[in-house]
Structures are given as structure tokens and as C-alpha cells.
């Protein structure tokens, strides 16, 4: 089974990492806008340090990002030149509803995205739209405490219904919440949560998760009612966990860690809480408040397809203190001696992508979509802005072959593939520009200096050829591995 002739090749970005124009066109501040560059970034992201406005002495990368707000026509033209079939992007909630709880939407924000969708349509590029990608209006955090409040369900669904209705016919593929499991690891980024001293953090995180899961199900229902042609997906920060040894307790730890993420998708794809989660709540005394109708809401509207990001696999043990830890990734992992690492310590494992695809497809039997995959690296351009990024081509080539094997050899149903950061953008984890993913180099540094000039890297033409041949260009370079 080869890749379908309508396989959706493309790239992915997020509004908060590309747009800039933070206070233009009626937009107001969102949580991601106040994540500073530097050592305090992690504490703010984790909800351990309150920062709900811009403060003196800090640099905030999202404030201008790569200024796609003013450059989107140029950027889409480059995507079209590569042959994109799909462009995964997100909407800025605070550009549509500046405060989040506004009675009426901001027309300037709605028109901005409508213009983008029409520009994509001009080139025959299908938008894959994430309704919220680490993006919560600051007012909702100040006034209601972010997703810890059940009121967020109504605010989110009003926003979702507004955009799904407005863009009927222009958008057919929707994702409700980006990397929903990040809520457990960076509660401010994923849920707009700032903890107070003495609070039960686990209880708050899982209560917020429940609110998000209900909102996601209601949004799926709305999307199907507005347009039966709409397809709605969920989104997991993916990557399988390997046991470091064959000790049974290490294998058990791998299962446990996989379930931390699968929990969200189990609910979104199957429509009910898995028993292992209910037992966790019981065992740890987590009292999750659920309305009487919630169970029915979740059961009535499972998602149509499952999407995930994949950058690396992770290796775990019941005794992690005995081993060297990998660095750089948000998820704790032991260093796997069988794998090379990126400059940021993320371990490179193309076969792990194939493994993850098989695990997800076996688990859900729903179409899958890889919506983030890429190599963050330091690129050194020549005097013309050109980058010889063979290291990126090598990384992507091997991962493309891995997912083609999952389709052609294993029978996984895969809708498409969008590389992360198809144009250089602000790295979510560090706020750096120097951690680059794109096929297009953007002249901007970690302190916000630069011309914002766009130039094509070597990988630009490589990916153009991959798309033009529906992956055959990669097959000719790397032989398949049959299990």
C-alpha cells in the first residue's frame, strides 16, 4: 500500500511563534506573549512564577516573532513554491476574542485569517487549523484562573463556533487543542494556570484537563453540525517510551509514561475515561468535578482522526537515578546509548516514529496525521542567506522513510505529514530563533535583531522534490526495513 495520491504534504507553524503584531488589529495579550527569553521562561511556563504582563528588563520573543502578520503573503508564496498540499497553522484566540469573554468577536481578527485562507486557496493549499495552540487570552487567566475554571468551556466553544462558522467552506480540517498533554508538564503554557502556594497541583491539572476534554468534544459536535464535511482531530505531544532494560519494572514504567499522554487521546478518540485514569484519581485522592452531562458529551463526539508531534523517542526506568539523563526535551528521559542527539540533546530515532505510528493506530484504529516533525539546529548562512542544511535533510529523509514504511509495510492509515517550523520561527521551549527548523531562513537572532529577510535553504528544494514525487525521491535514497 503506497502513499495515497492525495497524501497531504506540507508544513506547520503556530500563530504565537510566527505572527507578531501582538497588539495590532485589536488583538490583546495571550499567555504565550508573556513568556520571556532567558532563565525565567521555564518557571513562567510551569506556572511557578506569575508573569501576566510585559515587565521591564525582559525580552519577549513572541511580541514580533517573525512578523508573519505582515509577511504572510510572501510566506505562503514560498510554501506554494515547495508544492505544499496542506499548511497547518493556528489561530490567535485573542485576535478573535481579545479578552476571551467578549460578547462579540473582533472583525479585524476574523478578516485577517479569512484573508490568509483565501491566499492559501489561491494556491490550492488546504489549511489544517489548530483552534488553540498554547494560546489563552491573558484576561481569562487574570479573571478566571485559566482552564482551572469550568467557565472556560463556554468561552472556548463560543470562540470555536465563531471561527468554524465564519470559515465554513474555507477550512475542512480542524484540531481542537495543540499537544493537549503538555498541560501536565507546562501548566501555564497548556492551561493558563499559575499555582498558588499549597495547592494540589495534580488535582488542578487534571481538573483543567477535564474542562479541555469537554470543550474539545463540544467543539467536535459543533464542527460536524456546521458542516458535515468538517473533520476534527486531537493532538498529542507524541513519542514512545522505551524501557531502559528488560527488567519488568522498567517495562511497567514505559507503559505508565505512555499512558500519561494517551490518557487525553483515549478520551478524545474513544469518548470515555479509561479505567487506569479513574484508578489514578481514586488512588491519589484527586477529586475531579464533573457535571452530570459530561459523560454523555464525551461519548457523543469522539474525534475523526488523531494527530501528533514526533521529534524523538524517550527511554525510561523505574530507577532513573542510576543512569545519565538526556538533556533538552521537556519530557524526562534517560540517554539512549544507541541513538545520536541533536545540539539540544533530543535523541534522533526515525524508527521510533514508525513505532509510534503503529502504537497509535493499533490503539485507536483511526486515521493518523503527523503534524509536527523536524530538526532544531543552528544554521549558519552564507553572505546571501543560503544555508547548506544537509543535517536537516538527513533527519527528515529518514523520518519520511519511516512513516512510509509504517504505511506501506505495516498498513497504518496516514492522512498527511507537516514538518514543524517550515519557516524559521521562535522555538516554544526556549524562545530562541537560533534553534531553527525551517526550509526558509529568517534573518533574526535571539535578541530580536535582524532584517526578517526570507531566504531558501538547501532543504527547500529537497522537500519540493519529495512532495513532487509523493515521497519516491526518498525511497530512492534509503531502502525500507521490513519487520
Report on the structure:
This protein has a single domain (8-475), classed as TIM Barrel, CATH 3.20.20.80. The strands form three sheets. An eight-stranded parallel beta barrel has the order 1-2-3-4-5-7-9-10, surrounded by five helices. The chain has a two-stranded parallel sheet with strand order 6-8. A two-stranded antiparallel sheet has the order 11-12. With 483 residues, the protein is an alpha/beta fold. The longest helix is centred in the middle third of the chain and has 26 residues, at 201-226. Strand 9 (368-372), helix 14 (390-408) and strand 10 form a beta-alpha-beta unit. It has 16 helices and twelve strands. One of its GO terms (molecular function) is 6-phospho-beta-glucosidase activity. Keywords: Glycosidase, Hydrolase.
Notable traits:
483 residues; alpha/beta; TIM Barrel; two-stranded parallel sheet; 16 helices; globular
Amino acid at each position: 500500500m503506497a502513499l495515497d495520491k492525495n497524501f497531504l504534504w506540507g508544513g506547520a507553524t503556530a500563530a504565537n511563534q510566527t505572527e507578531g503584531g501582538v497588539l495590532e488589529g485589536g488583538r490583546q495579550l495571550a499567555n504565550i506573549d508573556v513568556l520571556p527569553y532567558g532563565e525565567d521562561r521555564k518557571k513562567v511556563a510551569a506556572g511557578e512564577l506569575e508573569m501576566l504582563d510585559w515587565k521591564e528588563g525582559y525580552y519577549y520573543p513572541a511580541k514580533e516573532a517573525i512578523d508573519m502578520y505582515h509577511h504572510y503573503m510572501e510566506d505562503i508564496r514560498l510554501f506554494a513554491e515547495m508544492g505544499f498540499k496542506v499548511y497547518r497553522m493556528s489561530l490567535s484566540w485573542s485576535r478573535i476574542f481579545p479578552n476571551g469573554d467578549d460578547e462579540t468577536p473582533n472583525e479585524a481578527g476574523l478578516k485577517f485569517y479569512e484573508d490568509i485562507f483565501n491566499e492559501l486557496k489561491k494556491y490550492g493549499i488546504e489549511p489544517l487549523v489548530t483552534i488553540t495552540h498554547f494560546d489563552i487570552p491573558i484576561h481569562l487567566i487574570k479573571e478566571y484562573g485559566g482552564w482551572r475554571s469550568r467557565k472556560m468551556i463556554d468561552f472556548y466553544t463560543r470562540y470555536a463556533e465563531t471561527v468554524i462558522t465564519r470559515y465554513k467552506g474555507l477550512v475542512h480540517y480542524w484540531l481542537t487543542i495543540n499537544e493537549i498533554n503538555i498541560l501536565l508538564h507546562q501548566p501555564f503554557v497548556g492551561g493558563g494556570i499559575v499555582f498558588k502556594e499549597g495547592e494540589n497541583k495534580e488535582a488542578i491539572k487534571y481538573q483543567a484537563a477535564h474542562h479541555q476534554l469537554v470543550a474539545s468534544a463540544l467543539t467536535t459536535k459543533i464542527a460536524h453540525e456546521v458542516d458535515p464535511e468538517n473533520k476534527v482531530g486531537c493532538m498529542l505531544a507524541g513519542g514512545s517510551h522505551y524501557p531502559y532494560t528488560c527488567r519488568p519494572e522498567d517495562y511497567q514504567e514505559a507503559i505508565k509514561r505512555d499512558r500519561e499522554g494517551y490518557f487525553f487521546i483515549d478520551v478524545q478518540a474513544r469518548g470515555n475515561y479509561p479505567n487506569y485514569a479513574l484508578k489514578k484519581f481514586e488512588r491519589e485522592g484527586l477529586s475531579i468535578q464533573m457535571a452530570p452531562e459530561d459523560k454523555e458529551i464525551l461519548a457523543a463526539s469522539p474525534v475523526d482522526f488523531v494527530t501528533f508531534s514526533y521529534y524523538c523517542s524517550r527511554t525510561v526506568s523505574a530507577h532513573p537515578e542510576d543512569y545519565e539523563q538526556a538533556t533538552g526535551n521537556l519530557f524526562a528521559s534517560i540517554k539512549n546509548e544507541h541513538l545520536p542527539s541533536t545540539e539540544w540533546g533530543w535523541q534522533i530515532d526515525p524508527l521510533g516514529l514508525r513505532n509510534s505510528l503503529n502504537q497509535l493506530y493499533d490503539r485507536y484504529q483511526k486515521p493518523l496525521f503527523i503534524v509536527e516533525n523536524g530538526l532544531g539546529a543552528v544554521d549558519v548562512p552564507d553572505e546571501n542567506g543560503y544555508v547548506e542544511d544537509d543535517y536537516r535533510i538527513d533527519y527528515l529523509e529518514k523520518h519520511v522513510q519511516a512513516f512510509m514504511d509504517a504505511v506501506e509495510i505495516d498498513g497504518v492509515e496516514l492522512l498527511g505529514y507537516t514538518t514543524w517550523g517550515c519557516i524559521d520561527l521562535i522555538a516554544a521551549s526556549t524562545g530562541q530563533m537560533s534553534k531553527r527548523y525551517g526550509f526558509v531562513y529568517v534573518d533574526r537572532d535571539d535578541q530580536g535583531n535582524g532584517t526578517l529577510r526570507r531566504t531558501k535553504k538547501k532543504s527547500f528544494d529537497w522537500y519540493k522534490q519529495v512532495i513532487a514525487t509523493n515521497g519516491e525521491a526518498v525511497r530512492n535514497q534509503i531502502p525500507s526495513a521490513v519487520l
